[in-house]
Structure formats: C-alpha cells, structure tokens
Amino acid sequence: MNLGNIAMRGITGAWILNSGLGKLQMDNATAGHLRGMASSGIPALGKLTDEQFKQFLVGGELAVGGALLAPFVPNRLAGLALGGFAAGMLSMYFRNDSMTQDDGIRPTQDGTPMAKDMWLAAIALGLVFGRGKKN
Question: What is the pLDDT of residues 52-108, one digit of tens each?
Fold first, then answer.
C-alpha cells in the first residue's frame, strides 16, 4: 500500500470510525432528528424507528471506518464501502433545497457542512480506480 492510500484510508477511516463511536451514546431524540434528515435523501430510512436508525447509522459508520483502517481489506473494497457511505450523505445534500443555491450544486451556508462529503466521494473513487498495490 502506498503512502497516498495510507493517508486516504487512515485519515478518512479514523474520522468515520470516531463519528460512529461518538454516536454510541446518542439518545433517541437526536437519532430521530438525524433520521429525519437522512430520510430526506433516502426515504426508506423514514420507516425505521429511532432506535433502529441509530443502530443502522452507528453500525454503518463503524463498518466503513473499520474497513478503511484495516490493511487487509483491499483498496477497491474499502473504496466501494466509502462510496456507498458518501452517496448516502450526498443524497441528503442534493435533495434538500435549503442546502444548495439556485443552481442545485453550490452549497448554501446551511449546506456547507454536508457539501464536504463530496471529498469522501472523491477519496472513494481514488481508492476504487487508483493504481496502488493491493487494489
């Protein structure tokens, strides 16, 4: 694995894993708020209970973060996991009018925190289509 892949996987994986660990103690009210946001991008998530959504979100973040950090997971597989995660995040961004300007792409002030997930998609593409060893 080359230094570029180590940086992409290590930093991104640690950030996502930490996010999942931070949500382990999340209360149901917070889970409900996040579920409402998530269901705007992926409507099927609205059918989950707050507790089910919390388990789904925490499990997903721990799995994706762990896959990125585990050196035995091939880059392409880790990139596909990250790509799925990024696609879910970006679906919320693009499907909420309050997050983008009139052109539907550039972020509003409210959308700027979500727009950063485009970097996750770019990293995923780099891992899937990169030329490093163990792709």
Answer: 999 999 999 999 999 999 999 999 999 999 999 999 999 989 998 888 999 999 999
User: What whole-number distance in Å separates Cα of residue 15 and Cα of residue 113?
Assistant: 15
Q: Tokens for 93?
A: 């961004």
31-55 b/e (C-beta count within 10 Å ≥ 16 → b) = beebbeebbbbeeebeebebeebbe
